[in-house]
Design goal:
The chain has 15 helices and 19 strands. By secondary structure, the protein is of the alpha/beta class. The strands form five sheets. Strands 5-4-3-6-7 form a five-stranded parallel beta sheet, covered by helices on one side. A five-stranded parallel beta sheet has the order 17-16-15-18-19. Strand 9 (about 165-170), helix 6 (about 180-190) and strand 10 (about 200-205) form a beta-alpha-beta unit.
C-alpha cells in the first residue's frame, strides 16, 4: 500500500488507538519557552507528576526576553522578569536542558532546535507555540500545542490526537530572481485562504521546494500556521542530511533505515492536492490584517473586509507599491536566519534607510546567527544603513516582550502575522520577505526589491 510521508511518521509513532478512534502518539521532543514553560512545569510539580524523560525536554528564553544589547532578566513588559526567573527555576528543578538568557545557544525555539540538531527527520516534536511546524523543514512532524498538552506530553510521553487529513502542496518550476520562500507561502495563502489548510497536515513538494535551502524550507513550513495547517513537512533529502551533519544533537550515523523511507510513495493518495506554478510568483506583501490579505508587490489592492481596509488605512484600487512606511523590522522565526540577513544586507550595503523612517531594527534569530553575521560584517552593513542591531529573540514579531514601535506606525516586517496590534497598539503591519523590508526601508515606502541591484558582500562569497 502506498503511503504519504505524513502517514509513515504517524504510524511509526502510534502506540494505541482509543475506542473513540483517537490515536495515542509518541512524542520524541518537547520544547518549552519562558512564556508558557514555567506554568507547565510548575503545574506538573504541584500535581506531583514527574517528567517521563527529562532528556527529551528543552526550554529557551525567546518570547519575552529583551533584545537590547547588554540585556539581562529585565524586560520592557510589566511582570516579564517573573516569566524568565520562574522558568529558570522550574527548568532546573525538572532537570531539563535550558538555553538561558546568556547561553551562547539562546535563540528563538524554531531557529535553535534545527541549529542544534534537536529536531531530526522522522521524529515528533511539539512546543507550546503555533509556529512549531517550522521544524517540519527537517522532515519531522512538528506542531504547536497548549500548555496543558505540554504537561501531558512531558508526563506520559504521548498525546491523544485525531489523525489529521493529508494535503500536498506542490510548487513546480523555478522561482524568478528576487522571489523567495516567503513569497511562495504568501502566494499560497492569498490564493487558498488563511483557513485553507484547516484539519490537514501539509507536505510541501515539487521542484521549487527541493531547490530551496534548509532555511528557505523553514520559512515555507513556518507560514503553514497562517494557512491553518496542523503541521507542515518536507521530505528529507541530501540537502537535509548535509545541514544536520555535525550538529550537537544529531547522530553521527545518517544511515538509519527509517530515514531512508521518509518520502511519500509513488501513488500515495492525499486528501487534497494543490499545484502552484512557482515561476508565476512575484515578491509578495500583505495589504490588510490577515496573511491572506497578501498580493504581488506590483499589483493593486483588492476589495477585502472593510474593517481591514479601515485599520490599515488603504483602499481597494490603490497600488501597494509606494505606500509610505514609518518603521522596518527584520527578525522572527520566519525570517531571521543567516541567509535572510545576508540577502537583506546585500541590498542595504552602500545604501541608507530613508530619512523619513522613524526606526529600523534587525533581530537575529539566535545568538549563533548573531555571531556568524558579525563574523561576516553584516552587523556593520546594517548599522551603516541605519538599522539597529539587536540581541536574538522574538522581539517585534509580537508585543509580548513589550517592544514596540510608536503607536500608529506603518511597519514593513519580515514576520508572519499582520493582525491588528500584533506589533503593538495601532501598528499597521505589512508582512513580506527580508528583501522587500530592506528595499522598502531604503525607499521609505513599500518597494520592489527587484528594482535594486544587490551588492556583492564577503558573506555571499563565503556562502
Amino acid at each position: 500500500m502506498s503511503l504519504t510521508l505524513i502517514d509513515k511518521i504517524w504510524d511509526r509513532h502510534v502506540v494505541a488507538t482509543t475506542a473513540a478512534g483517537a490515536d495515542l502518539v509518541a512524542i520524541d521532543r518537547v520544547f518549552l519557552h519562558e512564556r508558557t514553560g514555567a506554568a507547565a512545569l510548575k503545574s506538573m510539580a504541584v500535581s506531583g507528576r514527574t517528567l517521563a524523560d527529562p532528556a527529551r525536554v528543552f526550554a529557551v528564553m525567546d518570547h519575552i526576553v529583551d533584545t537590547r544589547i547588554g540585556r539581562g532578566d529585565q524586560t520592557l513588559m510589566e511582570g516579564g522578569q517573573a516569566f524568565i526567573t520562574e522558568t529558570r527555576a522550574a527548568a532546573k528543578a525538572a532537570g531539563i536542558t535550558l538555553f538561558d538568557v546568556t547561553d551562547p545557544d539562546q535563540g528563538i525555539t524554531h531557529v535553535i532546535s534545527p541549529e542544534l540538531g534537536i529536531v531530526l527527520p522522522g521524529c515528533t516534536l511539539v512546543a507550546p507555540d503555533s509556529h512549531t511546524c517550522t521544524q517540519g523543514a527537517l522532515g519531522a512532524m512538528a506542531w504547536g500545542i497548549g500548555a496543558s498538552e505540554a504537561e501531558h506530553a512531558m508526563a506520559t510521553g504521548v498525546l491523544r490526537l485525531p489523525r489529521p487529513k493529508t494535503m500536498r502542496v506542490r510548487f513546480e518550476g523555478a522561482l524568478a530572481p528576487g522571489v523567495t520562500a516567503k513569497d511562495m507561502a504568501l502566494a499560497l495563502i492569498a490564493t487558498h485562504g488563511a483557513g485553507g489548510g484547516a484539519g490537514h497536515a501539509v507536505e510541501f513538494a515539487g521542484s521549487a521546494v527541493t531547490a530551496l535551502d534548509i532555511e528557505g524550507r523553514m520559512t515555507l513550513c513556518n507560514m503553514a500556521t497562517e494557512f491553518s495547517a496542523m503541521s507542515a513537512i518536507i521530505a528529507p533529502d541530501e540537502t537535509t542530511f548535509a545541514y544536520l551533519a555535525g550538529r550537537r544533537y544529531a547522530p553521527a550515523d545518517f544511515n538509519d533505515p527509517y530515514w531512508q523511507t521518509l518520502r511519500s510513495d509513488d501513488g500515495a493518495v492525499f486528501d487534497r492536492e494543490i499545484l502552484i506554478d512557482a515561476a508565476a510568483i512575484a515578491p509578495m506583501v500583505s495589504w490588510g490584517t490577515s496573511p491572506e490579505h497578501a498580493m504581488p508587490i506590483d499589483g493593486v489592492i483588492p476589495h477585502g473586509p472593510q474593517r481591514a481596509h479601515d485599520y490599515i488605512a488603504l483602499a481597494a484600487g490603490e497600488r501597494i507599491e509606494g505606500t509610505p512606511i514609518d518603521v522596518a523590522f527584520i527578525g522572527s522565526c520566519t525570517n531571521a536566519r543567516l541567509s535572510d540577513l545576508r540577502r537583506a544586507a546585500a541590498l542595504l550595503k552602500g545604501r541608507h534607510v530613508a530619512p523619513t523612517l522613524r526606526k529600523a531594527m534587525v533581530v537575529p534569530g539566535s545568538s549563533a546567527v548573531k555571531r556568524a553575521a558579525e563574523a561576516e560584517g553584516l552587523d556593520k552593513i546594517f548599522e551603516a544603513a541605519g538599522f539597529e542591531w539587536r540581541m536574538s529573540g522574538c522581539s517585534l514579531c509580537f508585543f509580548a516582550g513589550g517592544e514596540s514601535f510608536p503607536p500608529g506606525s506603518r511597519s514593513i516586517s519580515s514576520t508572519n502575522r499582520n493582525f491588528e496590534g500584533r506589533q503593538g497598539p495601532g501598528i499597521r503591519t505589512h508582512i513580506a520577505s527580508p528583501e522587500v523590508v530592506a528595499a522598502s526601508a531604503i525607499a521609505g515606502a513599500i518597494a520592489d526589491p527587484r528594482k535594486l541591484a544587490p551588492t556583492p558582500i564577503a558573506a555571499q562569497a563565503q556562502a
